[in-house]
Amino acid sequence: SDSHFPIPISPAHVDFSLHFPKFVEADNKTSKKVEFADIGCGFGGLLISLATLFPDTLMIGMELRDKVTEYVKERILALRRTSSEGQYENISVVRTNSMKYIPNYFEKGQLSKMFFLFPDPHFKEKNHRRRVISTHLLDEYAYVLRAGGIIYTITDVEELGEWMKACLEKHPMFESLTQEELDSDPVVELLCNATEEGQKVARNGGQTFRAVFRRIAYVS
Ligand code: SAM
């Protein structure tokens, strides 16, 4: 249950210095803020791919399962130890329930990318409220994303793919990326092959359904 992991009362109370020791400055604060969040990061494959693609960007995975979170922590520490070029210092993971605590971790407009890769489908209609993309949760994601920030979603479940796309399409704070923008974004190809779930789907020859949207600026 939630009582088993600490919940920061506000983003100012999150001590990221422990997560990113190489980015800590004299005042014991990190020199930059976390910009990418991988929600339900599972075993951390996406973070590991992104770490070297964006070496100067701090990124955090959020994962509900305790053992999986511990595994990702160990995996990152091992990569840091064995990297001769000082890589993987920019990625870390927290155990939390992202459906409840995103605003406890990030300030308004802090994030430039959010990832939702192969989230749990929650097929039954009465469980749709447990889906990580919903109109209500998109309000929160729009709050923590900066204008121009991007939300990436992918799934192998067609019905969930349509649901995520429909939620994003009807939300006033998001617009779809054009095909040209998708083609020129190096992150897009990672969506279906960087994570453990994506690799499993690819091995089984499964289809995937993607929705990538931009957080627009407020219209006055
Ligand atoms: N994104 C990873 C990938 O593509 O390999 C993992 C996909 S897995 C099917 C979904 C993950 O989301 C699981 O690891 C699960 O524990 C996590 N999860 C589910 N609900 C969550 C929540 N409310 N907060 C954080 N993580 C959650």
UniProtKB/TrEMBL annotation:
<comment type="function">
    <text>May have a photoreceptor function.</text>
</comment>
<feature type="binding site">
    <location>
        <begin position="97"/>
        <end position="98"/>
    </location>
    <ligand>
        <name>S-adenosyl-L-methionine</name>
    </ligand>
</feature>
<feature type="binding site">
    <location>
        <position position="40"/>
    </location>
    <ligand>
        <name>S-adenosyl-L-methionine</name>
    </ligand>
</feature>
<feature type="binding site">
    <location>
        <begin position="195"/>
        <end position="197"/>
    </location>
    <ligand>
        <name>S-adenosyl-L-methionine</name>
    </ligand>
</feature>
<protein>
    <recommendedName>
        <fullName>tRNA (guanine-N(7)-)-methyltransferase</fullName>
    </recommendedName>
</protein>
<comment type="similarity">
    <text>Belongs to the class I-like SAM-binding methyltransferase superfamily. TrmB family.</text>
</comment>
<comment type="function">
    <text>Catalyzes the formation of N(7)-methylguanine at position 46 (m7G46) in tRNA.</text>
</comment>
<feature type="binding site">
    <location>
        <begin position="63"/>
        <end position="64"/>
    </location>
    <ligand>
        <name>S-adenosyl-L-methionine</name>
    </ligand>
</feature>
<feature type="binding site">
    <location>
        <position position="117"/>
    </location>
    <ligand>
        <name>S-adenosyl-L-methionine</name>
    </ligand>
</feature>
<comment type="similarity">
    <text>Belongs to the DNA photolyase class-1 family.</text>
</comment>
<feature type="active site">
    <location>
        <position position="120"/>
    </location>
</feature>
